[in-house]
Amino acid sequence: MSLVNTLKGVAVTSVLSIFSMVGAVNAATYTPDTLLGSAQLGNSGDGDELAALASIAGVDVNSLSIESKDNSGSFMRDDVGNYFVDVAPRTPGYFILKFGVGGTNAVSHYFFQNIADLTKLVWTDAQTNSLLANCTSDCRLSHVTQTGDVSPVPVPAGGVLLLTALGGFALMRRRKTTV
Which residues contact 43 (CB under 8 A, 6 or more apart)? Predict the structure, then answer.
């Protein structure tokens, strides 16, 4: 009988260990993205938000485009308390958090560069002055704007070298046919 009880105990312990390992594997912890700055823009439009982002990020406003705008105000929390929005499969370069702050002079907009997990937009309470943690009925996450950098991608040096080599071969071939 004691052998049966021992085997039952081992089986239960094994099953519990497997469940705890699965839980650890599925634990979601994300690295917060880089806060670039914040501003009180109130009820601004898309153009004002992009202009503020361009100024804070030090990029040309014409190089930015709005990829999407989520007005649901929904977000999730990871296992360490970071806030995040899952945007997979998109990988926006920047994002803007706009908070409704109930007619106060509190900062309404926070500008981030998406650098960590590119399919997640991640921020902390500290980065947004604990607005969500201390939120009353007068404040909320109004919207999340995702932007992409649409500036032209420079041709890599390897591409330039390849084009130069092909041009050289064409000239050599032309020279051989004229001689």
Answer: none
